[in-house]
Design goal:
Elements lengths: L2 E3 L2 E3 L11 H29 L10 E5 L2 E4 L4 E8 L6 E6 L5 E7 L6 E7 L5 E8 L5 E10 L2
Parallel strand pairs: 4-10
Antiparallel strand pairs: 1-2, 3-5, 5-8, 6-7, 6-9, 9-10
Amino acid sequence: MDIRCGKRAVAGSTGLDEPSCKDSRVVARRGRLAVIGLLAPAVLLSALVISPGVAAAASPKLTIKPSEIYYPCSEGNVTFTIKGFGKDKKVKLREGSAKGTKVATISTNSSGKGATVIDFTDTMPGSYPYYAVQSSTVMANATLTIGECP
């Protein structure tokens, strides 16, 4: 590459080693820095936008349906549904706390989802927290409310 410094051309040189090209050295460096400064964010942005197959992990979730029943007029089956857990896992359903009494085991499918049905009869009114626990760091909770007949 030839760079013109002052009135003379320096063949095969970048011009950065020539004493008469001190101003060109600064311009050349600034030019490179400007290009690097523009390209680096563009490359990073394209990597973030175009990366296929990268998905956020789903947060574990426990859903209780119906979430409220009435004693004794609407006792019966309550469905506990989980999602966002590991695929093909055994998730313990516990009452009261994450270490409370185990009331069921829910098997997840290849999508990390599963469900179980529990029959509630002769359960006194109150709020009953339930925890779906795969491990000490993978769990979800929801509350079943049992009220008196309206």
